């Protein structure tokens, strides 16, 4: 489907494929799949990527029969690699107009998809993000939308007329992405593994294009605790530092001015994270290693990072080759 056709397709005629990355949370995964199957506006296909889980994830998926397309990996590729594999599978085998991307602890409410489709219908929008709440109904600080800086009055009014907010980025906790644009810009960068993968990817999709936050589309993010990503991340802080440096140095997702803006914001957040940490030595080690690797290395091409998965690897290479 062409860009113009995809943008103007009526909600009922739009082909939506959901992509879930799963790792050792089989009961939450079951709940997520059931929520997708229970949408008022049903999805056309569900792709689940099992990131080398050691629990009964595969058995749980099997209970849904042909309703779910399972891709099983024999090593953990992180959220970034899992989404790259799952999105490639969806593009190569399920003919989506839109991809609906989420973690296995993301539980969409029954009208979440319908609200996303209404938000993008008849527009030039290429990305939409849901309102993410925790189990008690509070907005989840881990997935707070960021209003697009320097947004034009026209774009702001267009989004506001439908009750939405223009954004420059969104998260993989319910990201709705137009498939033709995904084919154009490529897949998430697998070597990011975790952290900043969705920031880099959503800003890449949205550079020179429009996206919105849709408060009427609500999903529940069932994390263990209610908190933001900068609350004492421990050893994972390495990925925050390395990946942010990779993004600022190598990604084309941000303009030069935006890199200055978001780079300064990251430094402030790192300082805030250190101030709140209960073990600064762990954070210090993560920062030093992340700083070193962020400057001395760069992410590999997805074809190299995701080699060895037979059909899944072939799907990734095919999508990336078409993008190139």
From TrEMBL:
Organism domain of life: Bacteria
SUPFAM superfamilies (alphabetical): Nucleotide-diphospho-sugar transferases
Keywords assigned by UniProt, alphabetized: Glycosyltransferase, Transferase
Pathway the protein takes part in: Cell wall biogenesis; cell wall polysaccharide biosynthesis
InterPro entries the record matches: Glyco_trans_2-like, Nucleotide-diphossugar_trans
A GO molecular-function descriptor: glycosyltransferase activity
Keyword flag Transferase: yes
Coiled-coil boundaries: none
Pfam families reported for this sequence: Glycos_transf_2
Glycosyltransferase 2-like domain segment(s): 19-159
Entry similarity comment: Belongs to the glycosyltransferase 2 family.
UniProt-recorded name of the protein: Glycosyltransferase
Species: Orlajensenia leifsoniae
